[in-house]
Amino acid sequence: MPEQSVTTQTTDDALIIALAQRLDQAWEERFTILPLTESEGITNADIAYRIQTHWTDMRVQRGERIIGRKIGLTSKAVQEQMGVNEPDYGTLWASRYFPARNGRAEAPFEIFLQPRVEGEIAFLIGETLDWPDITPQQVLAATEALAAAIEIVDSRIDRWRIKLADTIADNASYGGLTIGAWSRAMRSSDLRTIGMVMSHNGRPTVFGTGAAALGHPALAVAWLANKLRAFGIPLRAGDIVISGALAATIPVQRGDLFTLEMHDQPPLHLRFV
User: Fold this and answer.
1) With 90 as the cut, is the pLDDT of residue 56 above it?
2) What is the DSSP letter of 97?
3) Residues 120 and 245 sit within 8 Å (Cβ to Cβ)
4) pTM attached to this predicted model
5) Any idea where the domains of the chain sit in the sequence?
6) Burial of 248 (0-12, 13-18, 19+ CB in 10 A)
7) Is CATH 3.40.50.360 correct for 65-272?
8) Pairing of strands 116-125, 195-200
9) Residue 83: its pLDDT value, please?
């Protein structure tokens, strides 16, 4: 890797730790911070992933549980806007998983900073993916079930003024999630053309298809499996993967109700209380 001041593998471990602690404090105490790209000159994605990984390790040491992974920046338009040519990923923390009962979930509004929601397709991995050059077909073969999912994206970065390294370090702007009923039948659906409608307080607001997630959700998951493996982390059996937004995000206010409808799946409702 070429040498660059703070944005190389030689970046001082103390800085990695300090920035992970800064993000963790912002998460716990609910305040925003300046973009790391501006305040610290962190622009290298590998350094940002080191910050993210250390932050996750800190939380796990305190009792946090990893339930899977999330994929971001799967839209070509967003990639062009951010000046990148691949997605990014983050870790799903169990403390921000809001179970749906009979298709309805609630999330406490006050724990978030500047939340938005987006509709996605979730994969439940049934076989550990740990070999070179994993393909979308192998992902689908290893998938136990799929489900509609609502991701809550949130940013510790002030006013969402994020660049690539900011969102990677900030756990890919993870806020939380809820997931609908798992469906084995959905494995035989054409995920590329599957449709989605997200309603906001009863009003249909955004519309999307599976192709919005890197052209095909399974392609996005294959990218993730290969990217994780490059860092020595296999995508494991039992992991949940949310595969990328199928439409634009919607800002959230206290009391809002969001309903995700996806072809052949029961509606999934999320209210912020």
Assistant:
1) yes
2) B
3) yes
4) 0.93
5) 65-272
6) middle
7) no
8) unpaired
9) 75
